[in-house]
Amino acid sequence: MVASLTKQESCTRYINKLIKHIEGKTNLDLRPLAERPCRVRSLPSDHYYVSTQSRTVYNLSVWLQEHARDCAIKDFHVRLKDHILACLRGIQYLGEDLVFSHDDRDTLIIAEEKIHKHKVLQVNYTTYDLRHKQDSITATHPDIMVLSQETDRVRHPYISCQCSILW
After folding, report:
1. Which residues, at least 6 apart from 88, have a Cβ–Cβ distance to it below 8 Å?
2. Among 19, 52, 118, 137, which is least packed, fewest CB within 10 Å?
3. Does the model's pTM come out above 0.85?
4. What does the pLDDT look like over 135-167, one tens digit per residue?
C-alpha cells in the first residue's frame, strides 16, 4: 500500500515537472480548464474591461529603477499620477495637455507602491455599420488604432501604436 502511494506521488511530481517544462518552452496553457482564468464578456455599454485580479505585482519604485534607461518609461510616474488624478476628478485625460501641480501629485499615494500587470484588456466599440463588437489587446495582439486627438488638418485622422504592458 505504501509503495503504491509513493509510486503514485512520484508519477504526479514527474507529470507536474514535465508540464512546467513544456509550458516554459511553448505558449500552451496545460492547466485543467477549472484552473484557467475564464474570459468574461463585458456589457456592451461598458467601454472596456480589465480583470480586477492580477497574478503579477510589481513594486513601482523598483520597476522604474530597472527600466530607467527605457525611453518609453520617461516620466511614467508623473504621467501615471496625472492619469489617475484626472480619472478621480472626472476630467478627460488626453495626455500631455493636462498637467497637475506637484502638490496635486503629492496628495495621491499609491498603496504600498504596487502596480498590477494584466494580460488582457477587452475593449467594446461600435463598428462603422453600427454593430457592437469586442476586441482584446494582449501581448500577442498588441496593435491599436484610434482616432487622433490632433486638430491640425495636415495630420492623419488616426494614430496607431503597440501596447507593451497593461497596468
Report:
1. 108
2. 52
3. no
4. 888 777 778 887 777 666 667 778 787 777 776
Residue in the block written with cell 529603477: 65
Residue 116 burial class via C-beta count within 10 angstroms: exposed 0-12, middle 13-18, buried 19 and up: middle
**Which segment of 35-44, 53-62, 110-119 scores lowest on mean pLDDT?**
35-44
- Cβ atoms of 136 and 125 within 8 Å: the answer is no
User: Residue 19: phi, psi to the nearest 5?
Assistant: -60, -45
Q: How far is CA 79 from CA 6, 16, 111, in A?
A: 56, 42, 17
Amino acid identity at 18: L
Residue with cell 497596468: 167
From the list 116, 112, 117, 88, the residue with the least C-alpha distance to 100 is 88
pLDDT in tens, 58-75: 888 888 898 888 888 888
CB 149 within 8 A of CB 95: yes
Nearest-CA neighbor of 96 among 70, 68, 75, 73?
A: 75
Is the model's pLDDT at 3 over the cut of 70? no
Grid cell locating 17: 515537472
